[in-house]
Amino acid sequence: MIPETNAVSSLAKQVPGINAALNSATSLLIPVPVIGEYRYGIAQSKRGASLARWFEGFIADCLVLDITNETTRHDAAIGLDRRRIDKPIPTNDIWIAAFCRQHNLPLLSRDPHFDVVRDLKRVGW
After folding, report:
1. φ, ψ for residue 69 (rounded to 5)?
2. CATH code at position 70
3. Taking a C-beta distance cutoff of 8 angstroms, is the pair 96, 34 a contact?
4. N or C, which terminus of the chain has less Cβ within 10 Å?
5. How many domains in the chain?
């Protein structure tokens, strides 16, 4: 399963229901755009030091996904598809969806705009 940034944040805050949503995951793969977004959030937080320590432990237990040539193909296809139907989503979310397609994995997210991405299964909580 691939967690989106709001899922990582919910895990850090121990939001009710998030752990139950992870029950079906055999492993967590975290894309570099999610790492960047979360680090940006940490940098702005009053709890930055404790969140940074938690996050380092969290990503140590995940497989980090780097952008590859194959990822860019999925990214371009998703971006064009969104543009054609005039339903854009944020750029980083297109990258995250591309990783899900590339690795054929569900996305853990609360963002319903992922529901309009073809061939992507979103798991909410």
Report:
1. -60, -40
2. 3.40.50.1010
3. yes
4. C
5. 1
